[in-house]
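Q: How would the structure tokens look for this protein?
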Amino acid sequence: MPTSFSDAKNLLSDLMARYSRQVDYLAIRLEEAEGTDILLRGDKIETLSEGISIGGQVRACHKGGWGFASFNQLSGLAARIEEAIAAALLIGSEETTLAPVAAVQDTCILPLTGTDPRHVPLTQKKGLCDRYGEILRSVDPHIATISVRYSDSTQRIIIATSEGTLLEQAWADMEMRFAATARNGETVQTGRETTGSRKAYEDLTNLDDQVRSAAQRAVDSLALPPVTGNTYTVVIDPILSGLFVHEAFGHLSEADMAYENPDILEVMTLGRKFGPDELQIFDGAAPPGHRGSYFYDDEGTPATTTQLIKDGVLVGRLHSRETAGKLGEAVTGNARCLNYHFPPIVRMTNTWIESGKTPVPELFTDIKEGVYARNWLGGMTNGEMFTFSAGEAWMIRNGELAEPVRDVTLSGNVFTTLADIEAIGDDFYWDESGGCGKGGQGGLPVGCGGPSLRIRHVVVGGESAEM
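A: Here is the predicted structure in token form.
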């Protein structure tokens, strides 16, 4: 890469002047990234690495056909531009439809509130992982295996387009993941915690209580009875609400899913009623301070806040410029790529359910027999169907918390579940632990949040006893 980003900007401007008239749209992204990855499993370090990567990508569009090329040597940039243009010219046969955005010339550096992870020695980061690993192991003799993962990435990018955008952005992202598995005979239970930050390395250094809690939950669960599978009224905490809105609903709101699948587009019809009047769902990178926040997306579209559900009605979806253009809707600034190896696609940023008005204790009122679920262990979605595993759970009996239970999974159809929301709590929590995957681009930082929810007719622990 040139000796400074100023040199790179001059180079990109020259290349744009040379090539931009050959296609309908041309975009070049340069990227410089520094990162650390540490994985402690058991008592052994399996991964310990630091690295710097420099590279970029070229996207060309002509008559609706896209050409893409990535590179890690700036000396070959002109050839990569020509490759992307040739591919676009070869396959383009319709019309290029990109929703309009104003050209941007800007520099946006996301400030840190504390220590830059690049200024922390690798030995210190390893020591942090060792400390947390020792905490996990020391909780109880029944802890059989543990894992600690640390990662950080600092990225600087330049985006130049044939429409006149010349944009520089930079940020740092940090994440830690902890897991402890406890065993007693054939009974095995796992506790997990994940946290992330775009603010300061210090956000990862005072997590002893959180780490210890993950291991203690695994140990405590060994002695708990498994939940009896049935259909229950369920109260979920804000962390599970955030996971639900991201995984089960958020992906269906990404417009490329709808545009490429007529069945989803039919189901996700704007104006359709999905939930109670109190239900409000948003996504947006504009709210500052979260892991999914930024100033501009990877097409140079300004960050926004998009309301997806208003008063229970679907009113919006998430867009790239292409999906917005093809569906005749406004851009939302949701085109993102993990790094220069991948083209931008429609991705969530920070996704949340707005707080309601019901005091949390009242969510349990009049539940004769139900389940209260907190935190998460894992989950999966398949279209509109979802299954999530709770990190902790208790039975609810006659409106009160009763005995704790284990092996609690929550399953259902997202649209039915939204309609079955009975009450929305007045609490709220932002979960910054998210790393979202889509289209082979795993680990993209996101935020999610929400209040506690009361939902009827949730299948818990597998198949409903009535089925």
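Confidence is low (pLDDT under 50) at residues 462-467.

The two ends are 62 Å apart (CA to CA).

Upvote if useful.
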